Amino acid sequence: MSSSTGGNLVSLSGGGTTRILYMNTCDSDQVWTTSHCQNQDHPRLTVQNITFVNGNSSAETEYDGGGAIWVRGGRFKAVNCRFFNNFCADTGPDLGGGAIRVFSQYEGLPVYIVNCTFGGMEDYGNVGSNGGAISSIGVSWTIINSLFSYNRAIGYGANPAESGTPGGGSGGAIYNDGNTMTLTVLGSLIEYNEVNEHGSAIFFVSNDHSGNIVIDDSVIADNIGGSWYPVYDGISMHSDTLIEVTDSVIENNS
């Protein structure tokens, strides 16, 4: 991994071969600090004013996904960060997060993504089997004033994987799977992301139908590909998922 500085930003690079940041309270090799690693309030990790570029976790087999950052446990937030050309495994039914993958946040509290850019220009996007930018299982997210563009979910065969396929290909920008969870998108732009299967912008599946989505003052437009859009084009979810959209534009998604 390499680093550089300029202005008020630090750049961290995985060199196209290595994940950049890993935090896992349930990894016994890192020493457990409580008896309930999956639900503890520490450590509290904030990444701020950092560019994460060329992270690659595709060689990981146990803790897969999360090309730039992989987190389980404690609390996590990203503030004023940029994520360019990060990559995780390109196939698999339930793995992903070209840039970030998160599990097990304390008491179900949300991950905060504030004033961050994922991609932003053609050839700068992040790539993974699912969740071109971000991916999680059983985690809530609050995304504020952020940009997701030109990220891609390139797996194929969906989840569960169709017969004869490796699976994946959903959630061009965002992939959320689990039960009770909330995706909140505020003042953000999600555009020009692409999938092979479902959710060109957002894939949100609450298995027990208890999750919900809130979108306010945001634009979700011109995302490409996929199917299964029961309410809004570009957003794959159960038809009975509670979704609240205010002062937002959702258009021209396929």
TrEMBL record:
This is Right handed beta helix domain-containing protein. It comes from the Bacteria. InterPro entries: Pectin_lyase_fold/virulence. SUPFAM superfamilies: Pectin lyase-like. It comes from Desulfosarcina widdelii.
